């Protein structure tokens, strides 16, 4: 259901920035969500239990996150931000951009592998997300793109063809995560698929003249 402003195409006013106290509360909520999901997956994340675990009122929790899907997609944002910070501190060591991205995505994949219940909960939330969760899903996509672009280590801006390759890599990485979580692909197969698709970055690189 849309409001009159969205129905007429008018932009909604941006949300005011969180105060330090609100940000601390939001972080407690996200940590509680990740902890519960890590123990029991998607079904273990119950809003009342998240509220109790993060020491906030249930009504307050719903003001931050209107549903469990909103909460778990935001949890994935938080996990990706943490991964991005870690990868910036320890950048990939491969020489070619495609190999650098493959190395980075496999490191991220192995981080998720250490907590399969949490990974499954976040991926299920992304799968269940409807239009009301679009801003959060878009943020997840932008963070994934930023991780890939940082890993590429390009001297200049990526070409349109390379950006297209990045989108294909994102889709493949997400699909590989789903097939692994469902038991339909091994880690070895995921690695092959990721390394194969990451070659698109080098294939789409601008040709050197002369």
Automatic annotation (TrEMBL):
This protein's superkingdom? Bacteria
Entry-linked Pfam families: TetR_C_20, TetR_N
**DNA-binding segment(s):** 46-65
UniProtKB keywords? DNA-binding
Positions of the HTH tetR-type domain: 23-83
Q: Where is this region: Disordered?
A: 1-24
The UniProt entry, under InterPro entries, shows: Homeodomain-like_sf, HTH-type_TetR-like_transc_reg, HTH_TetR, KstR_C
Name of this chain's protein: TetR family transcriptional regulator
